[in-house]
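Hi! If you just cloned this repository, the fastest way to understand the data is to look at a raw example. We've pasted two of them here, unedited. The first protein comes first, obviously.
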Amino acid sequence: MSNRYARIAFSEAARERQKLVGSYRDYGAQLENGRDEPQPLELRERGFVRAADSFFLGTATPDGWPYIQHRGGPKGFVQVLDDHTLAFADLTGNGQYVTVGNLTENDRVALFFIDYPLRERLKVYGRARMVERVDDPELVDRVAVAYNGAIKKITERAIIITVEAYNWNCVKYIRPRFTKERLDEAIALERRTAAAEQQRLSAEIEQLRRENEVLRARLGVETAAP
């Protein structure tokens, strides 16, 4: 079992604090077991990433200042190339190129995926490699496959992430939020459920009506008999 996440995230100061508050056994102690090797993406992680329509990307400036950028797109815009590799298209933005500049000097990244309705979040550590369109246009187009033709044209590069480690967060303090798409799906499901229930009740009422008619007919015959 890999302990790469603990090795990256839990510094000596973090481990000392864990010992003080009693959480070391759950976290820092992972360094005492397992192997220092990249953590493969399992079925749950791959599915979660593929279903995401946004994530936050963390990089660092040469001076060590953290920088966070939001990335969004249609579901599937972050591709899972294999158990250790993610990729997404880097579209033309506001021209600051902070992330590109940071990655030029430091390939370490953190990706933060969150599903508000399900109250789930996934943190991913990795190393990023940038592939410019001029160097490999076919690769860039493949990575941008989730976008339509107009968006593909403003894809400047592909960013390939080699995953080092990941960790699931607890649900604490995640306030549920719902996109219009998810609300529409929920409403449509509720309508289908209500329609099916109405159909079932109508059939049941019709059956009872027929049974009632039969009983009335029998009672009429019995009453008329001498």
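Ok, and the second one:
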Amino acid sequence: MNNETTAVTSPTEMNNAQRHNVPSIEQWLKEAKQQTDADQCGMYLFHNGVVRGTAKAQVRHGENSPRVTGMQFSFDQKKVDAAVQRVKKMPGIFHVRAWLNSGTLQVGDDLMLLLVGGDIRPHVVDALQALLDELKSICVKEQEHYE
């Protein structure tokens, strides 16, 4: 398994100027492919979560909601690190990397980037889904702002 550390910025280190310094997925892929176990990876899967203009209640439950203008977003660093470590232990997974934004974000801003690399598609898809589910349900706090 890869010993790469989680690429996550803590909310206390983040300010508005840093908020838009989103990592390069091209650089992440380049670095992943240079790892010693990269020859065991047959797939890399990337997730880019962004602030959308439609409310979660509208998208998920069809509720009539005002337009979203932004979001307050934060996360628990220890929980994120634990989630990444759990996913790294899943079958066939050799590379996991996560970056999460924080602060007051606008529609279109990046919330998180995730990269998972592994041997075969089912392992990689399952690992990315598990990581995303845990991050969204346990590790982050989101508060939508409306018009």
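That's it. A detail worth noticing about the second one: The chain has one domain: 22-146.
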